Amino acid sequence: MFKFKSKTKIQHPDFPEVKGIYYHKILEKIFQTHCPDLYLEIGSRTGNSLEVCNCDYIAIDPKFQISKNVFNSSNSFFFWQGTSDDFFSAHYLETNGLTPDMALIDGLHLFEFALRDFINLERRMEKNGVILIHDVCPFSYEMVTRDTEYVNTGKPWTGDVWKLLLLLIEQRTDLKIDVIDAAPTGLAIIKNLDPKNLTLSENYQGILEKYVDLTLEDYGADQFYQKFPLIKSHSYHL
């Protein structure tokens, strides 16, 4: 949703360098290999990632600023200008008999929003579908702030989406999670979805109490990155 306004990247020594293929190129590769029938994207804004989409799609964003060619080889498009919470509450997918088999979470970079997006997506997707989560590999303590005004500084901002990855690793061991070194801030690829698994929704309040106030400085970037292997994007195959 939020795009980097500055090309200057200051690498913090506590963090591994994420310098693989740019994440849009990874998305394009996944479209070609996964061949989804219906793609759902949360946080489309300018349409950068939609430009590489080769299937029917649903795009969600509170304030579209489309500047890319999003009318590509897809046959059907639906743009929801509003929040993802409102989209799922409107039951658009159920009403129209739609089941996405690929989705990207790239909306407001706050843990609880990303968590709700994952919960809402998983229960409505095919079991053999895939959910992608952008911005799970920050490269500084500064960029993980929960202050949404930080984006106005022009500096890269991932917010605390990293906590969603941590949560899934710790509490959803049934999922298959790959973390790709997609530049500039990583991409998590979640498979083996289980629409009937209610672990996250039934424990939502407890999860918020445990994770929302957790900071990466307190948790430790080194400990976080020890939770998963960082897969080289050049050699990754879905």
Report what the structure shows.
The protein is an alpha/beta fold and 238 residues long. The chain contains nine helices and eight strands. The protein has an eight-stranded mixed beta sheet, covered by helices on one side. The radius of gyration is 17 Å and the shape is globular. The chain starts with 22 loop residues before the first helix and ends in a 7-residue tail after the last strand. The model is unreliable at 1-7 (pLDDT under 50).
Q: First CA to last CA: what distance?
A: 24 Å
- The average pLDDT score comes to 93
Number of strands: 8
Number of helices: 9
**How would a textbook summarize the main sheet?**
8 strands, mixed
Any low-confidence stretches, pLDDT <50, length ≥5? Answer: 1-7
- Give me the side-by-side strand order of the main sheet: 3-2-1-4-5-7-6-8
What Rg is obtained from the alpha carbons, in whole angstroms? 17 Å
* Helical amount: 25-40%
Give the helix/strand class. alpha/beta
Shape: globular
What fraction of the residues are assigned to beta strands by DSSP?
15-25%
Order of helices and strands: HEEEHHEHEHEEHHHHE
Layout of secondary structure:
Blueprint: H1 23-34, E1 38-42, E2 56-61, E3 77-81, H2 84-89, H3 92-95, E4 102-105, H4 111-122, E5 130-134, H5 162-171, E6 176-180, E7 187-191, H6 199-202, H7 204-211, H8 216-219, H9 221-225, E8 230-231
Parallel strand pairs: 1-2, 1-4, 2-3, 4-5, 6-8
Antiparallel strand pairs: 5-7, 6-7
